[in-house]
Amino acid sequence: MNLKRLLPAAPVLRTGLAMVLVAALAACSSTSKPKPPELPANVVVLGVRQAWNVKIPQVAFPLQSNVSGDMVTVASADGTVVAIDARTGTEAWRASAGAPLTAGVGSDGSMAAVVTNKNELVVMEGGKILWREQLAAETYTAPLVAGRRVFVQTADRATSAYDGGSGRRLWIQQRTPEALVLKKPGVLLAVGDTLLTGVGGRLVGMNPGNGSSRWEAPIAAPRGTNDVERLVDLTGSVSRVGDSVCARAYYTNVGCVDAVRGGLLWSKPAVSAEGLSGDGQFVVGTESDGNLVAWRRADGERAWQSDRLKHRDLTAPLVVGRSIVIGDRTGLLHFVSREDGAPLNRLTVDGSAIAATPVVAANTVVVVTRNGGVFGFRPE
């Protein structure tokens, strides 16, 4: 059984029956993970200092930290949601969704939205719950809060919009669900006046006013002979520079799309489930074996590849200035060069795995660990 080349897979759901196939995946990919090679001594090329630290409960769900201006909003598995001023590490507010979370956080710097394991969309403002809305299916992608509206994509491929103040549903667009969907964050963002979402292996541009489709761009097409092999969901963070939006299709491809015209710019084979980062020159991603790869944004040709972090279960990267920041399962935070992946610095955070893709706000790299440590680091 291929099962995406026997690489570790995210749990999946069989739509309609809502049957979790974790056991089947584990049985077919039971080979132990290769031991990562010993890292060389840390030679500090780039100075990095810890600026602040905030504590939240344990993070045991696929957290997507949100940045809006200088504000970073994070959440823990038990439903705690915290908004932090990245300049000082001061908590702007802290609240509870009242139940464990499966998706979050979406925020515009004022309102914040999460989804609980009871399939409730919970919207907060200033540390108080504004409203709750029952959803028809599980959700693993953080809601998008934009223009005083809240957009949600559920695991059954339905995309819906809600009024941010009242919770009134404005519209819903339902796609034919795939046989299986990933229990992993997908793609949901706004580019100008277009709502972008992932549907299978396609990036879809929608009218945020009514949910109608404006264009579809295929980053990957289903392949294989069974439902698991044919999974091509778009997963994780995207790299956006202007109208160029680059995304990853689960264990299949990386591709870039013109978000105005809806045209596919390029698509290249890539093997991972983690998202992307980048700048005007490069699109950067971590592969399932721990290789770090940079593709040229203009044409998708590979610019460089580094195997220095092989088999370390890496997060998606963050490109910030001349550095790329990556976390691993042992709790190390790696700063490497965006030019060739050469090491710049390495930090031990709190000893637990890095639980979310690092983000940057107010010139501060914000990292969240499995044990609930939220750290702000500033490169010097």
TrEMBL record:
Keywords: Cell outer membrane, Lipoprotein, Membrane, Palmitate, Signal. Pfam families: PQQ_2. It is a lipid-anchor. Its main location: membrane. Residues 78-305 form the Pyrrolo-quinoline quinone repeat domain. Part of the outer membrane protein assembly complex, which is involved in assembly and insertion of beta-barrel proteins into the outer membrane. NCBIfam families: assembly_YfgL. Part of the Bam complex. This is Outer membrane protein assembly factor BamB.
